[in-house]
From TrEMBL, chain A:
<dbReference type="InterPro" id="IPR004353">
    <property type="entry name" value="Mon1"/>
</dbReference>
<dbReference type="Pfam" id="PF19037">
    <property type="entry name" value="Fuz_longin_2"/>
</dbReference>
<feature type="domain" description="FUZ/MON1/HPS1 second Longin">
    <location>
        <begin position="282"/>
        <end position="381"/>
    </location>
</feature>
<comment type="similarity">
    <text>Belongs to the MON1/SAND family.</text>
</comment>
<dbReference type="Pfam" id="PF19038">
    <property type="entry name" value="Fuz_longin_3"/>
</dbReference>
<dbReference type="Pfam" id="PF19036">
    <property type="entry name" value="Fuz_longin_1"/>
</dbReference>
<feature type="compositionally biased region" description="Basic and acidic residues">
    <location>
        <begin position="90"/>
        <end position="111"/>
    </location>
</feature>
UniProtKB/TrEMBL annotation, chain B:
<feature type="domain" description="CCZ1/INTU second Longin">
    <location>
        <begin position="218"/>
        <end position="344"/>
    </location>
</feature>
<dbReference type="InterPro" id="IPR013176">
    <property type="entry name" value="Ccz1"/>
</dbReference>
<dbReference type="InterPro" id="IPR043987">
    <property type="entry name" value="CCZ1/INTU/HSP4_longin_1"/>
</dbReference>
<dbReference type="InterPro" id="IPR043988">
    <property type="entry name" value="CCZ1/INTU_longin_2"/>
</dbReference>
<dbReference type="GO" id="GO:0035658">
    <property type="term" value="C:Mon1-Ccz1 complex"/>
</dbReference>
<protein>
    <recommendedName>
        <fullName>CCZ1/INTU/HSP4 first Longin domain-containing protein</fullName>
    </recommendedName>
</protein>
<dbReference type="Pfam" id="PF19031">
    <property type="entry name" value="Intu_longin_1"/>
</dbReference>
UniProtKB/TrEMBL annotation, chain C:
<dbReference type="GO" id="GO:0010506">
    <property type="term" value="P:regulation of autophagy"/>
</dbReference>
<dbReference type="GO" id="GO:0005765">
    <property type="term" value="C:lysosomal membrane"/>
</dbReference>
<dbReference type="GO" id="GO:0035658">
    <property type="term" value="C:Mon1-Ccz1 complex"/>
</dbReference>
<feature type="domain" description="Mic1">
    <location>
        <begin position="396"/>
        <end position="643"/>
    </location>
</feature>
<dbReference type="Pfam" id="PF07035">
    <property type="entry name" value="RMC1_C"/>
</dbReference>
<feature type="domain" description="Regulator of MON1-CCZ1 complex N-terminal">
    <location>
        <begin position="25"/>
        <end position="143"/>
    </location>
</feature>
<dbReference type="GO" id="GO:0031902">
    <property type="term" value="C:late endosome membrane"/>
</dbReference>
Length: 521, 480, 670
C-alpha cells in the first residue's frame, strides 16, 4: 500500500494536540488531487483552530490512556468538580424543565414488546458493566433492564473467551456493541450504515455522557459502587443524548468530523474575530461565536486546540435548550477530547434576545462567571460600534446558499470538507429534500459513501454510484473530501466536469464560506 | 493454512495467517430442552475432540445470540456474529436445525524482540459475511443432494441415523472446504455454460432425446463439455448443486486419464463402429470384469411431492460428459450398463469431437486471445450463468484468482451494496492502488470489471466498460 | 384387403361400340383416340378421345376394309390405310376441299406396315423396306416426300411425345434402329442391340414386337424389353430390361426390373412407375427406377411393393351399358382374344402394346377404356421402411396428403416410429423442400440480375406436391400432434426439436410459429428451465412476435421478461418496443437511459415519459424526468420551456404544485 493508502488510517496520535506545522504552498486556483494538504479551498492561512483530523478514526483512538495518569492527582479536584457538577446539573435540570418536554415523553412511554418499538430505525442503549440500564433512546430503562442484562451477558460471555464481541448481523438489522469501561453501549439499527458508522455514533454518545460527568468521575463512581444506578446522576440530561442522536442523523458535520461556517465576507468576519480576540481574560481558553449550528468565528488560547467532537458537544448543549436565551448561562462542561478528567466552565449567552448569535466563552475557572460576563460586554460594545455587526446580522438572514448558485443544473447537493481547517461547506437542502425523511435518506447516502471511502482496510480514492434516485460521486484527496449528489439522469462525463467547476466555484467563494484566518488571544 | 504475506514489515518478518475453520457444528435446541440435557442438542461437532462442556457452551452462545436477535427482529434470524478473533455464521435450513460455522479472522503475527511472545493482530474486516454465509448454505445443499433433508433422516431412523449421516458426510466434506480461497463466486454459486453454435447444440439435443427414448429408465439427463454445462434436464437449483459437485469434486478426481483425448478431434472411421472413448465416472470402472462390484451414488432432487431419489450415472467420453439420472427404486444391472455403454459410447465420442471441432473453429474466428486491459466476473441470477476471466480453472483444491485479494473483496463489497436494493445500479470505484473497479447491475444480471488503467478517468473507464459489453455481452440487454 | 389395392382404374372410362363383324375398332396412341368404324365407314365413324368433347363422328365411303386410321395432330387431316401400298387422306380443315386424296409408298413393291403422324401435316410411312417422311399439303391435296431411308423392317413402334420411331431390323429383329422427327427433319439415332436370352440357330425373328415398349420415365426415353425366362439361359424368372435412349449418344442398358416370376406380363408406366401386370396371378407389380435398394446390385430393382391385384371396378350403370347392372368385376388378364387393339391407357398416356396385344378384361364386355392409376394410401402400410416409403412417395404426383398422413402416423401412439425414424423422414422432406427453395432463390436472383441484362431465359421452378413446407407440417401434423393427449411431453418436444434440427441442418430459416409451438408446449408442461436453455443457445431464433409471446409469459415465468428484452435488443430494430416494455414496468429512468444510450433522447416525446413518471406517483422521479426534459429544451432551443406542441402544460402545472415556481429551471443566459 502506498502513502495515500495509509493516510485515512492514521489515528490521531499522528496529529496530537500540538499544532501540525504544514507546508505553505501557492493556493492553486483549481485544486487537483495532487494538491498539497493545507492549500485546498478553505484551508487556513495560519494553523487551524481545531485538533486537526483526517477522519473519524480518531474517535476510536484510545485518548483515555493519556488522561489516566493525570487522574490520581486530580481526584480531590474531581470531588470539588462533583459539587460543581451538582450546581451545573441543577441548571441543566431547570433548562430541561422549560425545554420542550415532548421529545422526552414521546420517547419514554412505549411498550417495549410492541412492533412499533421494535421497528424504530435506530435504538441506542447505554448500560453499566454490571448490566444496569443507563440510557435507552426509546422506551423506559426499567422496562428494558432484562434486555440490557442479556446484552451484558453476551458481552461478558465473549470476553470470558479472551475475545471481544463486535456485532450481530441479521437481515436488515444489526446490533453493534461498544465497551467503554465502565460503560457498555449498544446500537440496534435497521439502517444500512456500516458497523464503523454506528460505532462512531456510539462514541459520540459515550463522549456526551463523559462531557457531563468526566471519565474520572465515571470510573470513580463505579469503582466505589459496582452496580450504581447512573441515571440518578444523569436524570434530566437524556434530552441532550436524544438531540445528539438526531444531529447524528441530520448534521453532516458530525459525519465529516468538521463544522460549517456562517457565510460572511472575510472582512466582516475578521472584525468580529479581532473583537473577540481583544475581549480576553486570564482563564479564557476558547471564545466561540455561533449562529445557530454555524460557526461565525472561534478564538483560542495559543497552543490550545478544540477538537471538533468537543465543539459538536458544545453545539449540542447550546442547541438543545432554549433556556440560555433568558440570560447568561454558566455551566460546567467536560470536553472529553481535550481532557476527560476535568471540567471547563462555559458562559453561554445570546448577543440579542431574538438573535441567533450565541457566544460561548470557555474558562478553566469555575469562579469565573463574572469575568466571562465582562468579556462578553466588552465584545458586544466593541462590535456594535463596527459596521461588521450589521453585515453579520445581514448574513444571518441567509445563513446558507442554494446549490443553483454553482450553476450546474444536474447538481442537487454536495458536501465539501477542507481537511486542514476541519471546516466544511454545503448548500441548503434543495426542494426535493425538504422533508426530514428525504434529508435523512440523503444523509444516509452520504454516510454510505463516507464509509466506503474510509473503509478500515480497503479505503478508496473515489466512489461513483448511479442508482434509481440519485447519482452520487465521492472523492477524497490529501487535501479535501467531496461528496456530490446528482440527478439520476446525470452522466459520468457531467460528474467529472461538475467536480472541476464546483472546486473552482468554492475557491472563488472560499473567504465567504470558510474561516481562513483564525485568531488566538 | 499458513502463507507468507505480500507485505513485509521492515526488519523482522511478520507472519500472515489466512482465515481458517475453527469449528463447525449442527444442533437442534428442541432435542435437549431440560437442564443437563444440553449435549443432546448437538448433532454434529467439528472438531470432535473438543471438550464436552465447551461444545455445550458454544452452542449455548449461539442459542443466546439467536434468541436475543429475535427481540429486535422476530422474523429475520441472526446470520452472523462478529467478534475480534472470529466470525460465526448461523443458518437454519430446516425448522430448529441450526448449522454454525466459526471462522477465525485472518491475523498477523508480529514477532517481538527479546523473546516476548509474538503479538497477534486480528484483521477483523477481511472476511465477507456474504461469502461465508454462502459457504454454509452450500454445505447444507451438498448434504441434501446426497442424503436428503435432515427431516428425512429423522423419519427414517431418528436422531441416531441423522447423526450417523452427518458424521459420515461432513467428516469428509469439511476437509474439502478451502476457506482462504472463497470469494464472490461462492456467493453466486453459478453455472458456467459452454458456448456453442445452434446446430451442434441441436445435435446434442437429439442425442439426449434419443438416449432417453431408447433407455426409457433414464429420467433426467445433463450434458457437459470441458466442465461447462450445455444441457440440463434437472431443475435449476438441483443442477446448480450437482454442477458444483461435478466440477469441484468428481471431474477433478478423474481429470488425468482423458487429458490425452481432450481437444484432439478424432472421428471413428465408420459411423457406429465400436471404437469409442466412453467410460463410467461413477459405477463400474471396468465393464470387462464381470466379478467387479459397482454401485452408483444416489442423489436427491426436488420433485412435485417433495424430493425424489435417483441413481447418478456419469459417463464421459473425451471432454464430453453425460449425466443420466434414474429412479433409485430400480436395480441397475451390469447388462444395463453394457447396454448404455454400447449405445452412448460411440455417439458421445462422435459428439465430443464434433463439439471440439466447432469450438476450435469458433476460437479461430474470434481470433487469438490477447491479454485484455480488464478482467471481469459476470453472473445472471435468472439462469445462474456465470463467467469469470479472473479465476483460473476452479479445482477441488483451490481456485486461483489472477487479481489481488483486496480487489476481490472490493467486488464483494459492491455485491453487498447491490444486494440491498433490487433496482438497477452502477458503481465505479478507484482503489488506493489506483485500480478501477466497476460493478453493473441490470435486471437480474451483475457484471464486475477490474481495470488496470491507473491513469484513466471516470469517463474513459466508462468507455472501456461499454466496449467490453459490446464485445462480450452484445447479445443481452444491459442497461447503460 | 381392398385397401391394399394400390392400382385402380379411372372413374369414368371411355365407352365405345365394341368390335364386331360390322364394327372395327382402332386406337391411336398419339391422340388417344378410339375409332369405331362401322361397315368401312359407310355407316359412320365414331371417334372418342380421353374427354367427351374431343369425340368426333362422320361418314366416309366404304373403299374396302380399313387397316389403320388416325387423325393428324389437332384433328386437321385424317389418314386411312386400306391397302398395303397406299394411304388415303381426308381434309378436316373447314372450307378445304373435302374429297379424298391418296399417296402411294415410293419404294417399289414394298408394303406399308403402318404410318404415324409426327405433326399436323407431317406423316411417316413405315414399310417393310424402310421409312418415308412426307409433308402433306391439304389445299393442294398432295404430299411431298421430305426424306426416306431404306432399311429392312420387321416391325416398328412409335413414341408420340418424343416423336421417336423404333424399327426392328436384322433377321433376329433384335437390332433396333430409332429415328427422331422434329419439324420437317428426320434424324437417325444410333442403333442398338437387345441381347437375347438365347440366340436361335438357325437365325429367325426372335424379338417380338410385343416384348418391346417405349416410355418416358422421369423425363427420359426408355426402351423396355420384357425378357422372358428360359431354361437354357440361367434366368430363373422374367425381368424387364430398360435401355436408356438419350437424344444424343448411344443407347445403354440402364435398369433391370426383377419380376421374380414367369408367365405372361403386361407393362404400363404410371406416374413414372413401371407397372407390370402378371396374367396368371392377376396381380401387378410396380417398380421405381429411382428407388435404390441397397441389398441389390446397382440398377437392379425389386418391386417396390408386394404384388397386388388391381382394385375391382364397378361398371357405371349410367351410359349405354349393354347389360343393365353388373357386379363389381375383378380386373384380370385373360388370354382369350376377342378383339384386336383394345387397350388400357395410362395417365402418362404410355400405351403398352404388350398388354393390349392380346389382353382383354374377361368378364367384361368390350367397349370400355380406362386410365390406370396408382393409389398411394395403401402403399403406406405395405412399405414398412419409412425412409424408403418417403423416397417413394416424394416422387409421386398426388403425394402431399399421403406424406402428411404418414408424418402424423409415425408420431401417433399406435405404431409410432422411434426418433431416428422421425428424424430421417423429416430430413427427406426438408431435402426436397430445400432444393425447391434454392431453385426459387436462383430463379429470383436470375430474374433480378436478368431484368437488368435483359436475359430472362430461366423459367420458374414448378412447385410439386412433394414440397412440404413448414406451414404444411404445422397445420396438418405438428399443431394437432402437440395437442394430442396421452403423448409423453418428452416425445412431443423431442419431435419438435428434431424438426427444427432438420430444418437448421438444411439451412432453412425456421418460421416463428414453430417456435411458438415449442414454447407453448414447454409452458403447458411448466418446463420453463428447458425453454430458458433453448433461448440461451438461440435455438429459438429472435423475432418480434416471439419476444412478445415471451413478454406475455412474464406473469407465469418472470425471467421471460429478461429473455424478451434480450431478444428485442438483439433484433436491434426494436428500440421503441424496448422503451414501451420498460415504461410498462414503470422503469422510466431505465427507458430514458436506454434511449440516451442509443442516441434517441433528443427526439422522444416528453409527454410520454412525463405521463409514465406521473403514473408511478413517485414525486422525485417526476421531478427528475421533468428537469431532464427542461434541460433538453434548453439545449435544443435555448429555453427550458416546453413547446405548445408537446402538450406538457398539465405537467408543468403539476410540477409547480409539487415543488413550487422556483423549482422550475431558469433560462440560463450563457
Amino acid at each position: 500500500m502506498d502513502v495515500e493508502g495509509q493516510r485515512p488510517m492514521v489515528s490521531w496520535e499522528n496529529s496530537t494536540l500540538a499544532p501540525v506545522d504544514r507546508l505553505r504552498c501557492e493556493r492553486a486556483d483549481s485544486p487537483t488531487p495532487g494538491l498539497v494538504e493545507g492549500t485546498e479551498p478553505g484551508a487556513v492561512h495560519q494553523s487551524a483552530m481545531f485538533v486537526h483530523t483526517q477522519s473519524f478514526e480518531d474517535l476510536t483512538a484510545e485518548a483515555e490512556e493519556a488522561q489516566r495518569e493525570a487522574e490520581l492527582d486530580q481526584t480531590d479536584e474531581c470531588t470539588q468538580e462533583l459539587k460543581a457538577l451538582v450546581v451545573g446539573e441543577k441548571t441543566i435540570e431547570e433548562q430541561h424543565n422549560n425545554s420542550d418536554i415532548s421529545s422526552e415523553s414521546r420517547a419514554k412511554e412505549e411498550d417495549v414488546s410492541s412492533e412499533a418499538w421494535r421497528s424504530h430505525r435506530k435504538h441506542v442503549f447505554v448500560l453499566s458493566e454490571a448490566g444496569k440500564p443507563i440510557y435507552t433512546r426509546y422506551g423506559t430503562e426499567e422496562a428494558l433492564s432484562s434486555t440490557m442484562g442479556v446484552m451484558m451477558a453476551l458481552v461478558s460471555f465473549v470476553e470470558a473467551e479472551k475475545n471481544i464481541i463486535r456485532s450481530i448481523q441479521a437481515d436488515g438489522c444489526k446490533v453493534v456493541f461498544l465497551t467503554k469501561s465502565p460503560l457498555v453501549l449498544v446500537g440496534v439499527s435497521r439502517t444500512c450504515q456500516s458497523d464503523k458508522e454506528l460505532l462512531r455514533e456510539l462514541q459520540y454518545i459515550y463522549y456526551q455522557i463523559v462531557s457531563l460527568l468526566t471519565l474520572t468521575q465515571l470510573n470513580h463512581i463505579f469503582q466505589h459502587k459496582q452496580n450504581y444506578d447512573l441515571r440518578r446522576l444523569l436524570a434530566g440530561s437524556e434530552y441532550l443524548t436524544d438531540n445528539l442522536l438526531l444531529r447524528l442523523d441530520r448534521d453532516p458535520g458530525l459525519l465529516l468530523s468538521a463544522v460549517t461556517c456562517l457565510p460572511l465576507a472575510s472582512s466582516a468576519r475578521d472584525v468580529v474575530s479581532s473583537s473577540l480576540q481583544t475581549a480576553k481574560a486570564k482563564n479564557l481558553v476558547f471564545s466561540i461565536l455561533l449562529a445557530g449550528d454555524r460557526l461565525v468565528t472561534l478564538v483560542r488560547k495559543k497552543d490550545q486546540y478544540l477538537h471538533h467532537i468537543d465543539l459538536h458537544l458544545v453545539f449540542n448543549l447550546v442547541g438543545s435548550s432554549s433556556s440560555f436565551r433568558e440570560g447568561e448561562g454558566w455551566t460546567p462542561i467536560c470536553l472529553p477530547k481535550f481532557n476527560t478528567a476535568g471540567f471547563f466552565h462555559a458562559h453561554i449567552s445570546y448577543l440579542e434576545p431574538a438573535s441567533e448569535l450565541c457566544l460561548i466563552l470557555v474558562s478553566t475557572d469555575r469562579e469565573d462567571f463574572f469575568n466571562m460576563s465582562d468579556c462578553k460586554q466588552r465584545f458586544v460594545e466593541r462590535l456594535s460600534k463596527r459596521s461588521a455587526y450589521q453585515a453579520m446580522k445581514e448574513a444571518l438572514k441567509c445563513p446558507s446558499y442554494s446549490v443553483e448558485q454553482v450553476g450546474i443544473p444536474e447538481l442537487r447537493h454536495f458536501l465539501y470538507k477542507s481537511k486542514s481547517s476541519g471546516l466544511y461547506t454545503s448548500p441548503e437542502f434543495p426542494h426535493l429534500y425538504q422533508s426530514d425523511e428525504e434529508q435523512e435518506r440523503l444523509m444516509g447516502l452520504y454516510q454510505d459513501l463516507h464509509s466506503h471511502l474510509h473503509h478500515p482496510t480497503r479505503p478508496l480514492r473515489s466512489f461513483y454510484r448511479c442508482s434509481q434516485t440519485e447519482n452520487l460521486l465521492a472523492w477524497v484527496t490529501s487535501g479535501f473530501e467531496l461528496y456530490l449528489c446528482f440527478s439520476p439522469l446525470g452522466t459520468k462525463a457531467l460528474a467529472v466536469s461538475a467536480v472541476n467547476k464546483l472546486l473552482k466555484w468554492i475557491r472563488k467563494e472560499e473567504d465567504r464560506l470558510f474561516i481562513l484566518s483564525p485568531l488566538t488571544y | 493454512m499458513l502463507m507468507i504475506s505480500p507485505r513485509m514489515a521492515s526488519g523482522m518478518q511478520e507472519k500472515q495467517y489466512t482465515p481458517s475453520l475453527l469449528s463447525f457444528f449442527i444442533y437442534n435446541p428442541t432435542f435437549g430442552p431440560r437442564e443437563g440435557e444440553e449435549e443432546k442438542k448437538i448433532l454434529f461437532y467439528h472438531p470432535s475432540d473438543v471438550e464436552k462442556n465447551e461444545k455445550i457452551r458454544n452452542v449455548g452462545l449461539c442459542e443466546a445470540i439467536v434468541q436475543f436477535t429475535r427481540t429486535f427482529c422476530p422474523t429475520k434470524p441472526a446470520k452472523s456474529l462478529h467478534t475480534q478473533k472470529n466470525r460465526q455464521f448461523f443458518f437454519e435450513p430446516e425448522d430448529n436445525f441450526w448449522i454454525v460455522m466459526v471462522v477465525r479472522n485472518p491475523m498477523v503475527e508480529k514477532p517481538n524482540k527479546d523473546g516476548k511472545p509474538p503479538t497477534i493482530e486480528y484483521q477483523e474486516d477481511e472476511i465477507l459475511d456474504t461469502v461465508y454465509g454462502a459457504v454454509v448454505r452450500q454445505c447444507y445443499s451438498m448434504y441434501k443432494l446426497f442424503n436428503g433433508t435432515f427431516g428425512r433422516a429423522m423419519e427414517a431412523g431418528g436422531v441416531d441415523l441423522l447423526t450417523q449421516k452427518l458424521e459420515k458426510f461432513f467428516y469428509r466434506y469439511l476437509q474439502t472446504l478451502h476457506l482462504q480461497s472463497c470469494d464472490l463466486l461462492d456467493v453466486f454459486g453459478g453455472i458456467s455454460f459452454f458456448p456453442l453454435d445452434k446446430m451442434t447444440y441441436l445435435k446434442i439435443q437429439s442425442f439426449v432425446n434419443r438416449v432417453e427414448e431408447s433407455l426409457s429408465l433414464i429420467k433426467y439427463t445433463a450434458f457437459l463439455y470441458n466442465d461447462q454445462l450445455i444441457w440440463s434436464g434437472l431443475e435449476q437449483d438441483d443442477m446448480r448443486i450437482l454442477y458444483k459437485y461435478l466440477t469441484t469434486s468428481l471431474f477433478p478426481r478423474h481429470s488425468e486419464p482423458e487429458l490425452a483425448g481432450r481437444d484432439s478431434p478424432l472421428r471413428p472411421e465408420v459411423a457406429g463402429n465400436l471404437l469409442h472413448y466412453g467410460r463410467f465416472l461413477t459405477g463400474p470402472t471396468n465393464l470387462k470384469d464381470p466379478e467387479a462390484k459397482f454401485r452408483f451414488p444416489k442423489i436427491f432432487v426436488s420433485a412435485e411431492d417433495g424430493y425424489e431419489e435417483l441413481h447418478l450415472i456419469v459417463y464421459k467420453a473425451m471432454s464430453a460428459a453425460a449425466c443420466f439420472m434414474i429412479s433409485a427404486s430400480v436395480e441397475l444391472t451390469r447388462d444395463f450398463c453394457e447396454q448404455l455403454d454400447a449405445l452412448v459410447g460411440p455417439q458421445l465420442t462422435l459428439l465430443a469431437s464434433d463439439i471440439c471441432e466447432q469450438f476450435t473453429i469458433n476460437r479461430r474466428i474470434s481470433g487469438p486471445e490477447k491479454e485484455p486491459q480488464f478482467k471481469f466476473i459476470y453472473f445472471n441470477h435468472m439462469n445462474l450463468a456465470e463467467k469469470s476471466t479472473i479465476h483460473m480453472r476452479k479445482t477441488a483444491s483451490v481456485c486461483l484468482t489472477s487479481v489481488h485479494p483486496d480487489l476481490m473483496k472490493i467486488l464483494g463489497d459492491i455485491n453487498c451494496d447491490f444486494a440491498r436494493v433490487d433496482e438497477d445500479e452502477e458503481i465505479i470505484v478507484k482503489a488506493m492502488t489506483d485500480y478501477w473497479v466497476v460493478g453493473k447491475k441490470s435486471d437480474q444480471r451483475e457484471l464486475y470489471v477490474i481495470l488496470n488503467q491507473k491513469n484513466a478517468n471516470l469517463i474513459e473507464v466508462n468507455e472501456e466498460v461499454k466496449r467490453l459489453c459490446a464485445t462480450q455481452f452484445n447479445n443481452i440487454f444491459f442497461l447503460d | 384387403m381392398s385397401e391394399e389395392h394400390y392400382l385402380e382404374l379411372s372413374e369414368n372410362p371411355v365407352q365405345f361400340e365394341h368390335a364386331s363383324s360390322v364394327n372395327n375398332v382402332f386406337f391411336d396412341e398419339a391422340n388417344k383416340q378410339v375409332f369405331a368404324v362401322r361397315s368401312g365407314g359407310a355407316t359412320g365413324v365414331v371417334v372418342k378421345g380421353p374427354d367427351d368433347k374431343s369425340s368426333v363422328a362422320f361418314r366416309m365411303d366404304d373403299k374396302g376394309e380399313v387397316k389403320c386410321i388416325k387423325f393428324s395432330i389437332g384433328n386437321k387431316i385424317l389418314a386411312v390405310q386400306r391397302t398395303s401400298k397406299s394411304v388415303d387422306f381426308i381434309n378436316f380443315i373447314p372450307d378445304y376441299p373435302h374429297t379424298e386424296f391418296t399417296q402411294e409408298c415410293k419404294t417399289k413393291n414394298a408394303s406399308v406396315l403402318g404410318f404415324c403422324w409426327t405433326n399436323w401435316n407431317e406423316i411417316v410411312f413405315i414399310t417393310d423396306q424402310g421409312i418415308e417422311f412426307y409433308q402433306v399439303f391439304p389445299d393442294k391435296r398432295s404430299l411431298k416426300l421430305l426424306k426416306s431411308q431404306s432399311i429392312n423392317v420387321n416391325w416398328y413402334q412409335y413414341c408420340p411425345e418424343t416423336a421417336v420411331i423404333l424399327l426392328s431390323t436384322t433377321v433376329q429383329g433384335n437390332v433396333l434402329q430409332p429415328f427422331t422427327f422434329r419439324n420437317g427433319t428426320m434424324s437417325k439415332m444410333s442403333k442398338f442391340e437387345i441381347e437375347l436370352p438365347v440366340v436361335p440357330k438357325p437365325a429367325k425373328l426372335s424379338l417380338s414386337e410385343r416384348d418391346i415398349a417405349m416410355a418416358t420415365i422421369y423425363g427420359q426415353l426408355y426402351v423396355m424389353y420384357l425378357k422372358h425366362h428360359s431354361r437354357t439361359a440361367n434366368s430363373p424368372s422374367a425381368e424387364v430390361v430398360l435401355y436408356h435412349l438419350p437424344r444424343e449418344g448411344t443407347c445403354k442398358k440402364s435398369h433391370v426390373l426383377k419380376l421374380n416370376t414367369t408367365g405372361k406380363f403386361a407393362l404400363n408406366v404410371v406416374d413414372n412407375l413401371v407397372v407390370v401386370h402378371h396374367q396368371s396371378s392377376q396381380t401387378s407389380l410396380i417398380f421405381d427406377i429411382k428407388l435404390k435398394d441397397p441389398d441389390c446390385a446397382v440398377n437392379t430393382h425389386q418391386p417396390v411393393l408386394p404384388a397386388r391385384s388391381i382394385h375391382p371396378y364397378r361398371i357405371p350403370l349410367s351410359g349405354p351399358a349393354v347389360v343393365p347392372s353388373q357386379p363389381p368385376v375383378p380386373c384380370q388378364l385373360s388370354s382369350k382374344s376377342h378383339i384386336k387393339q383394345v387397350s388400357i391407357w395410362t395417365k402418362t398416356a404410355q400405351i403398352s402394346k404388350l398388354l393390349y396385344a392380346d389382353a382383354v378384361w374377361s368378364g367384361w364386355f368390350p367397349g370400355y377404356l380406362w386410365y390406370l392409376q396408382v393409389k398411394l394410401p395403401p402403399t403406406v402400410n405395405l412399405l414398412q421402411d419409412k425412409g424408403k416409403l418417403m423416397d417413394f412417395l416424394l416422387r409421386r404426383r398426388d403425394c402431399k396428403m399421403v406424406i402428411l398422413s404418414v408424418c402424423s402416423q409415425i408420431l401417433d401412439g399406435g405404431d409410432k416410429g422411434s426418433l431416428p425414424v422421425v428424424a430421417t423422414v423429416f430430413d427427406k422432406l426438408n431435402q426436397v423442400y430445400k432444393e425447391y427453395l434454392e431453385a426459387e432463390q436462383t430463379y429470383t436472383a436470375a430474374m433480378e440480375s436478368g431484368a437488368s441484362r435483359g436475359s430472362a431465359a430461366q423459367k420458374r421452378p414448378i412447385r410439386t406436391q412433394a414440397v412440404i413446407d413448414q406451414s404444411d407440417m404445422y397445420t396438418h401434423v405438428l399443431s394437432a400432434f402437440t395437442e394430442r393427449k396421452g403423448v409423453s411431453h418428452k416425445f412431443t418436444i423431442a419431435v419438435l426439436m428434431e424438426y427444427i434440427r432438420s430444418l437448421n441442418q438444411f439451412q432453412i430459416t425456421v418460421q416463428h410459429y414453430l417456435y411458438e409451438l415449442v414454447i407453448k408446449t414447454l409452458v403447458a408442461h411448466n418446463l420453463f428451465y428447458m425453454l430458458h436453455q433453448f433461448l440461451q443457445y438461440h435455438v429459438l431464433s429472435d423475432s418480434k412476435p416471439l419476444a412478445c409471446l415471451l413478454l406475455s409469459l412474464e406473469s407465469t415465468y418472470p425471467p421471460a421478461h429478461q429473455l424478451s428484452l434480450d431478444m428485442l435488443k438483439r433484433l436491434s430494430t426494436a428500440n421503441d418496443e424496448i422503451v414501451e416494455v420498460l415504461l410498462s414496468k414503470q422503469q422510466v429512468l431505465g427507458a430514458l437511459r436506454f434511449i440516451r444510450s442509443v442516441g434517441g433522447h433528443d427526439n422522444v416525446s416528453a409527454r410520454k415519459f412525463l405521463d409514465a413518471a406521473l403514473q408511478t406517483g413517485d414525486q422525485m422521479l417526476f421531478y427528475t424526468v421533468f428537469r431532464s426534459f427542461q434541460q433538453r429544451n434548453q439545449r435544443l432551443r435555448g429555453s427550458p420551456a416546453f413547446n405548445p406542441g408537446e402538450h406538457c402544460e398539465e405537467h408543468v402545472v403539476h410540477f409547480k404544485q409539487l415543488f413550487g415556481e422556483q423549482a422550475l429551471m431558469k433560462p440560463s443566459t450563457v
